[in-house]
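Hey, why these numbers?
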Amino acid sequence: VIWLVRGEDSSETTKENTVYVDSVAELCGLGSGNGLNDRFSGVVEPQKTWNIELPSDKKVDKILVKEGDEVKTGDKLFTYSTEEMEESLAQAEIDLDRLGNEIEQTKAQITQLKKEKAEASSDAQLSYTTQINSAENTIKKNEYEQKSKKVEINKLKNSIANATVISEMDG
């Protein structure tokens, strides 16, 4: 853009009072005069990212969003398949019941062995003591397995309850 500044006499235009001025758009590099805007190079980076990795022991059942959908915090993204987890839960509950039954049977066996030991000769009592100690160790082992099964059951129930992955951020 060329601006002409006239002297006091508006009819006079001289080389000395001519001022050349560029537009603000040109000074800022917003245009080259040919109708095209200049492009700035660089990389656009998100402020936050959230990676969701599929655990090896889980399968995706349903995907609830499509690529390019805008999601808000709290939106459901996808669900895991719970069929295998439900089967594992049922098996773990059966195992827990079995362990409880084994403990009760072993306790009854110990009670019977103690009665027999009281009536046995002093030579046979050592054998009964060994059998009783072995049965008590079996009970302790089964009680430990019961605790492990309860932890496993709680984890499976928690996984089933949290089978839907919910967005933790907007994006």
The longest strand covers residues 76-80.
